[in-house]
Amino acid sequence: MFNDxxxxxYLQYWFASYPDxxxxxxxxxxxxxxxxxxxxxxxxxIVSGYLSDPSVRRxxxxxxxxxxxxxxxxxxxxxxxxxxxxxxxxxxxxxLWLLVALTWMWFILRxxxxxxxxxxxxxxxxxxxxxYLPHSAK
Length: 138
Hints:
By secondary structure, this protein is mainly α.
C-alpha cells in the first residue's frame, strides 16, 4: 500500500468497476479503522454518560455518533470492496466517506467554538440569578 503512492493520482484507481481487494497491510489498516470507529464510538458514548457538564456531554455524544457511523460505513464499503462488487465496491466511496466525516467534524468544531461558550455563559447567568432565590427544603 505504501510502496507505490502514484496510483492514487489516477482516476482509474478510484473509479474502477472491479477494484482489487485490500491485501496485506492495507487490509489490516482498514480493519483497524473500522474497529477504532466502533470501539471509540462506544467508549465515548459510555464516558459521556458520566459527565455533569451538558456541553461536554453533547460534544462527546456527537463525536461518538461520528465515530460509530464512520466505522459502520467504512465497514460496509470495505465489505463491498473485498467482494469486488461493481460500483458499490469502488474506492471513491472511501473518499466520499472522508469528505462526509470532515464536514461532520466541521459542524462539531463549530458547535465547540461558537455554541458551547454561549451555553456556558447562559448557565452561569442562570446560576447567579438563582443563587438569590429561595430554595425549597428537600
